[in-house]
Hints:
Blueprint: H1 2-37, H2 57-61
Amino acid sequence: MGIHYDYKSTKGNKLMEKQAKRERKLAEKKAKRLAKEGPKKKEEKVPALDPNKPISLDFLTNPNKE
């Protein structure tokens, strides 16, 4: 009866320990993955269309012309 008597009183602590262990493992995996990938570079976003310029037929037919 000793095991069953003690189960409910320690269940909460054991669940918290398991969750902490799981979070610690995930944090280690994330840190390892970020270290392996290296720093992220920010890509500059180029606006496709200027809202102040009207869209012309020339732009629609030849969009690579800048």
